[in-house]
Amino acid sequence: MSDKKPTYYEAVGRRKTSSARVRLHVESDEAKGTMTVNNRPAEKYFPGEVFKRIYLEPFRTTNTIGRFSVTVKVEGGGLSGQLGAVSHGISRALVKVDQEKFQPILRKRGLMTRDPRAKERRKAGFAGKARAKKQSPKR
């Protein structure tokens, strides 16, 4: 068994129908602090300050901004679901870096819990949407 440290930590995050495979790279000094999502910079993939705040939240909580370079492969769902999956995956990867230190604070902020909310399925025999009822005639 070797005592060699890994070059990256990997985890999977999920939200709605999206899933994100996240890798936190440790070794590269010149690329530290960079984040790519599906081979594009994260600022381009998730444009805007609100999105940036959400995907950087795990790093801000654990005080590790700029310590890792991050690569993400995300698929399925829409932009909002993908963003939640990326945040969840980053949190899970950070726990693999240092479980005793990071897990309690990430769990307290709600970043370790997989958000189970998803679109409800449509039921047969009903009108259109999941909870809509057929209209009854009045006369």
UniProtKB/TrEMBL annotation:
Q: GO molecular function of the protein, one example?
A: structural constituent of ribosome
Entry coiled-coil feature ranges: none
What do the Gene Ontology cellular component annotations say?
cytoplasm; small ribosomal subunit
Quick one: where's region Disordered? 107-139
Renumbered to this chain, the Basic residues biased-composition regions fall at 119-139
Q: Which InterPro entries match?
A: Ribosomal_Su5_D2-typ_SF (IPR020568), Ribosomal_uS9 (IPR000754), Ribosomal_uS9_bac/plastid (IPR023035), Ribosomal_uS9_CS (IPR020574), Ribsml_uS5_D2-typ_fold_subgr (IPR014721)
Q: Which UniProt keywords apply?
A: Ribonucleoprotein, Ribosomal protein
Q: Which GO terms describe its biological process?
A: translation
User: Known NCBIfam families for this protein?
Assistant: PRK00132.1 (NF001099)
The entry's family comment says: Belongs to the universal ribosomal protein uS9 family.
Q: What protein name is recorded for this chain? A: 30S ribosomal protein S9
- Which organism does this record belong to? Candidatus Gottesmanbacteria bacterium RIFCSPLOWO2_01_FULL_43_11b
